[in-house]
Amino acid sequence: MPGSVMSVFSEPDDFEAALGEEGCLGLLITGRGLFRARLTQIALHRLRLSAAEEQLSRIGFIVVPADMVLMWFPIGGAPSPVWGGVGMRAGEIMIVGPGQRLHARTAGPCRWGAIWLPVEELIRYGRALTGAPFGVPSGAQYRRPAPANGTHLHHLHAAAIRMAQIRPQALVDAEAAHGLEQQLIHALIKCLPAGMEDKRVTATDRCQDILSRFEDLLKAQPNRNLHMAEICAALSVSDHLLRSLCLEHLGLGPTAYIRVRRMSLARRDLWRGNHGVASVSGAARRHGFHDGGRFAASYRELFGELPSVTLRRSLRAGTADLARRRMHLPV
Asked: 3-state SS string over 225-290?
């Protein structure tokens, strides 16, 4: 059934969870300061749309399901993200084919829009509208549609987002949702004709595979401070290759990336009270930080507050939640 959800976030973990529907398997905030983000998501009969506004730079690990295609584009004049190690240029859109796994990073405040469509539906509509066989991108590509076609798609997407924000009940109407969806699909197909100027993301399948396995390795051992020699042996790559790939795709060397990742996991434990963490020192030790003073200083520089403040806010939030439940109030 068509519908929409609008959310405002002050915690990266909550934003990451919401982005799970947008194909984001992992989100690492790299910008300094307090986190703020806003996300609007729309589900139509076949299409899914979303629009987001983020305030801090971050690295996202994007995984597209085997039966879906993702179209992504920046909104406004903010610097565009780097997908697969290649930065976007003005007027381009990003097409990510089914089953692709790659990183997308931003360098500061960012606004973006996305459209998801099942592969079978894209092929069916593409064939019907063009009268010819319609291929689905197999990898990740930047494409530059004709200006009029790109502008039309952006306007339709923006109109749908405004409708969700101002008159969300209109999207529940099956006829209105169907009409909007048909216009969006037509506009999308016009942005994907054969022979248009495009360029494939420069990362080879092997490079994407190495970085995907790097993410899998870190996820499998989240609390260990893995050393470069150990990582390279597990991935069967050289130290030089891993460093160059991380710098190109993540904007950080592997050691720095792992450190920020462990810091973020420590923050998650403090905020959520994971694994019985009841102290800052406990969270720090659990994620391999044994110098409490250095941990607190680095934590404050990255997240804009001391770890003790995060823990106190978590305890206050838990107490308020318990009080609401006792009074039978909505959380």
From this structure: CCCHHHHHHHHCCCHHHHHHHHHHHHCCCHHHHHHHHHHHHHHHHHHHCHHHCCCHHHHHHHCCCC
